[in-house]
C-alpha cells in the first residue's frame, strides 16, 4: 500500500528539521508532501556537514545571470543536497575539477578588479560546504577589491545558517556575503519565468544578508534598478 508519509526518522526530532519543514510548508506549494519531507530531512542532515578538505572549482567567468550587474562567478565543487534535475550534477562531487590555487586566485582577482565588474557570485555545488575556503577568498576580496559585492547560492535556508554556532564556517561565511539565493532547487517549483531573477525554482529566495543578520529573520533583497529592459 502506498503511504503519503515516510517512516519516522530521528532527524525529525531536531530543531533544524522543524525549521526546514516550516519554511518548505510555506514556500513549496507545488511540491508533494512526501518530497517536502525528504527535502527537509536532507537540509537538516546537511547542516552537520563540517567542511570540504580542499576547494575544487571547474570555472570562473563573467556573468550577467547570477546577480546584479556584470559579475565574476566561481563554480565550487561538492554538494550533498542531490536535488532532482540539479543544473550541475557533476559538480555535486567533492574533488571535481581543479584544486583552487594561487593561479585561480590571480585570474579571479584580475577579473574582479576591472572597473565595470560589480562583484563576485559563488555558484555550486554547495558553496557553504566549502565555507572555510571561501572565507579566505572573501578576506582577500575585501582587502583588494573592497567596493565589490559578494553574492552566493546555497541549498541551505538562511534561517538555518543564522542559527548555527558562530564558530561554524557556514555561519561565519554569511558575515562576508551581501546577497544570498537560498534553498535547494526543487523541480516541482521550477519556473522558467524566474530564470531572469537568478533562481531556478520559486521556493528559492533572494536574501539581503546584512539586513537579515541585523533583524534575525529573512529580509528579501530589493533588486537594483536597471536600464536593461530585457530583465
Ligand atoms: S543545491 Fe545546487 S548544486 Fe546542490 S544538488 Fe541542488 S541544484 Fe545541484
Automatic annotation (TrEMBL):
Catalytic activity: glycyl-[protein] + reduced [flavodoxin] + S-adenosyl-L-methionine = glycin-2-yl radical-[protein] + semiquinone [flavodoxin] + 5'-deoxyadenosine + L-methionine + H(+)
Family matches, as CDD domains: Radical_SAM (cd01335)
Recorded superkingdom: Bacteria
Pfam families: Fer4_12
InterPro entries named in the record: Aldolase_TIM, NrdG, Organic_radical-activating, Radical_activat_CS, rSAM, rSAM_sf
Molecular function per GO: 4 iron, 4 sulfur cluster binding; [formate-C-acetyltransferase]-activating enzyme activity; metal ion binding; ribonucleoside-diphosphate reductase activity, thioredoxin disulfide as acceptor
Transmembrane domains' residue ranges: none
PANTHER family with a match to the protein in the record: ANAEROBIC RIBONUCLEOSIDE-TRIPHOSPHATE REDUCTASE-ACTIVATING PROTEIN, PYRUVATE FORMATE-LYASE-ACTIVATING ENZYME
Family as reported in the entry's similarity comment: Belongs to the organic radical-activating enzymes family.
Protein name (record): Anaerobic ribonucleoside-triphosphate reductase-activating protein
Amino acid at each position: 500500500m502506498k503511504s503519503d508519509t515516510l517512516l519516522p526518522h530521528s532527524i525529525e526530532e531536531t530543531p533544524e528539521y522543524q525549521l526546514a519543514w516550516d519554511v518548505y510548508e510555506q514556500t513549496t506549494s507545488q511540491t508533494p508532501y512526501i518530497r517536502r519531507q525528504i527535502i527537509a530531512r536532507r537540509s537538516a542532515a546537511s547542516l552537520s556537514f563540517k567542511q570540504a578538505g580542499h576547494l575544487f572549482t571547474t570555472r570562473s567567468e563573467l556573468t550577467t545571470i547570477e546577480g546584479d550587474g556584470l559579475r565574476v562567478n566561481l563554480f565550487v565543487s561538492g554538494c550533498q543536497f542531490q536535488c532532482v534535475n540539479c543544473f550541475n550534477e557533476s559538480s555535486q562531487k567533492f574533488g571535481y575539477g581543479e584544486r583552487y590555487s594561487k593561479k585561480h586566485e590571480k585570474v579571479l582577482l584580475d577579473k574582479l578588479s576591472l572597473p565595470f565588474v560589480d562583484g563576485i557570485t559563488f555558484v555550486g555545488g554547495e558553496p557553504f560546504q566549502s565555507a572555510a575556503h571561501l572565507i579566505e577568498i572573501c578576506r582577500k576580496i575585501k582587502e583588494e577589491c573592497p567596493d565589490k559585492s559578494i553574492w552566493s547560492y546555497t541549498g541551505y535556508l538562511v534561517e538555518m545558517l543564522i542559527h548555527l554556532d558562530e564558530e561554524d564556517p557556514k555561519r561565519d561565511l554569511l558575515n562576508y556575503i551581501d546577497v544570498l539565493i537560498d534553498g535547494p532547487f526543487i523541480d516541482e517549483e521550477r519556473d522558467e519565468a524566474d530564470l531572469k531573477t537568478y533562481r531556478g525554482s520559486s521556493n528559492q529566495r533572494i536574501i539581503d544578508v546584512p539586513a537579515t543578520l541585523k533583524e534575525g529573520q529573512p529580509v528579501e533583497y530589493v533588486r537594483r534598478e536597471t536600464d536593461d529592459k530585457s530583465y
